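Predict the 3D structure for this chain.
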Amino acid sequence: MEQRFDGARDLRRAEERLHRRLPEPLEDLAWISFNYLWSWTPGGEDLFNLIDAHRFELAGHNPVRFLLNLPERDLLHAATDREVLDLLERVATRMRTELDRPTSRVLPSGPVAFMCAEFAIHSSLPVYSGGLGVLAGDYLKEASDQGLDTVGVGLLYRRGYLHQRMDVSGWQHEFWEVMNTGQMPLVRVRGPHNQPIVVSVPVGDDDLLAQVWRVNVGRTVLYLLDAELRENTALERWTTARLYEGSHEIRLAQYGLLGVGGVRALEAMGIRPALYHMNEGHPALAALEVASRTARELGGQRPDLAHLVAQGRDRFVFTTHTPVPAGNETYDPSTFFSVLGRAVEQMGFGRDEVARLARVNGEDPHEPLGLSPLAIKVSRSTNAVSERHGEVAREMWRPLFPGREAADVPISYVTNGVHLPTWMAPPMRDLIGRFCGVEWERRCSDPSIWSHLDEISDLDLWAVRNQLRRRLIEMIRSKVSVDRLARGENVSLASAGQHLFDPDVVTVGFARRLATYKRLDLVFYDAERLARIVREGDGLQLLVAGKAHPLDEHGKSVAKNLFGVIRDFGLSDRVVFLEDYDLRIAPALVSGVDVWLNLPRPPLEASGTSGMKAAMNGVLNLSVLDGWWAEGFNAQNGWGISGTVESDPGAQDYRDAHLLYRILEDEVKPLFAARDLSGVPTAWLARVRDSLRTLSPEYSTTRMLSDYNTTIYRTR
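Done. Predicted structure below.
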């Protein structure tokens, strides 16, 4: 049997090093800390908080860093704390039971390699930006839960994505923090003779070298390529410095490393995927590397690239996530080949051959090159991420299939889902678990599971919703006070932050990437009316969060305008912008608000998953009928704003903004305020039950991965 150098041995060594630092009663913490399964195992996060919540927070919720820096006296104290030891035993038992379950093959000939430019596994591994990464992280967690033979392939960004700091005016400033891999739950993969596995990819005029890191995500493994090697120049090392770098040349180098380097890294580790799943077009060059290997195996006269691609097409599937041009970026041929030309040539292909594959119209020499057209052409299947996105994608890519009507373009859809154990808050998880039976989470895509919701009393359901809202408000008060001081607000305003929000007032959340098509500006389209809504009657509270790309001046302006409205209308106690939105903040936000707001300009929302996370926590969606909500809305489980596309964007904004205000004034606020004799909003909770019952089974990764297995992976 061929030996695999897949990092498992290296991980055991890292666990042993941490193990030696721990008192004997705490030894299980070593292997627990090196597997992100702890983050969605009941009691996992509580365990580290119980030892020292403040230091765990300072460690960025990174258990390896936390334990390496915890004073010995505190370790010894924890080793004698019966509450800590009992919880450690429960968590370790749960994790061992999960890790010992058998793994099953999706395909008989090898694993599925899930390739993506970003993965949001946990806040302590900052190699993600937003929705694409969250989807990828949830995919790997669900693959672990289902025991599917899957590996993830991505890049280790030493500086991650941007951190956000707002100034007093509301203008976004960015900063980055450098990762310390010596205190991370990951290990460098080593090969024969204990030397790090290193792959080489021609980039520009030199060869870019990259090492490989292993991250355990339950029973699934994520491999991350990293150019931080002394053999590389400073410019080459920058290739894996920051996610979504503004430079076209740097991004092309990243995509070359992800696609070509990803295939080479798996080969070097002895991993032979049966199928490559390209999540967005970024890793599309993987197909050229596989074609090159096929050519070498054939020997003799090399077939042309089109023939090789046809031979290898069964090994590739492609998921497209966005109809927005920025998500399907294109490059001038001179730029493309200045970065990747040598790689193409060393693989044995002509630049013209590759250019034809990377253009919609392969014969047009003036058309720029794109990785999305390449990904579609090299894959046996392409899928969108919601039913409506499928319609948009078929029309968008129809030129790739001359003579076909849009309905006949071979692009299907698998609607996104979210990982329930990650995103359903523990209080809601515990409540539902009391009524839905053993291992209900594994069967959460079965609608019959959710019929048990009727057994939960209104009092119990309302108590959990109140608990989650109060938890969110506690987080807001702490964070906003510090954020206001950090950006130079006066001490009185910072102090007022400690008393923000009323835990009994309906709370609305809007957290999106600050791109203009997300239309945050609709919220303050009529600032005077917004002010009346949040002030009059029982009132309303609004939380806003999100980051703009460093080069997106329009997105930054939207946030600045919101700050102006808050200041000019005196709304700082009822409308709050939460800085630096990421996986640390998201769980409390999506579970603690009462209404989740999403206002994309249709049809530009491919799917969206934040509203799914909110729904799993008993939060009601108020959203434009685009993306997933066009499928999920039934008029009883939330509120919908028309997704009809109008030719006049200004007229559409006017219509949608005033409909939003009317729904908030006439439906959301009165429904939340109407209480029975016990003080419970029974009509509101009826909608909450309908939302949980209809949305939770349909929009989980359990259903999503089942769809991929049956309709995408196992079709040949």
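Residues 112-413 form a domain with the Rossmann fold fold (CATH 3.40.50.2000).
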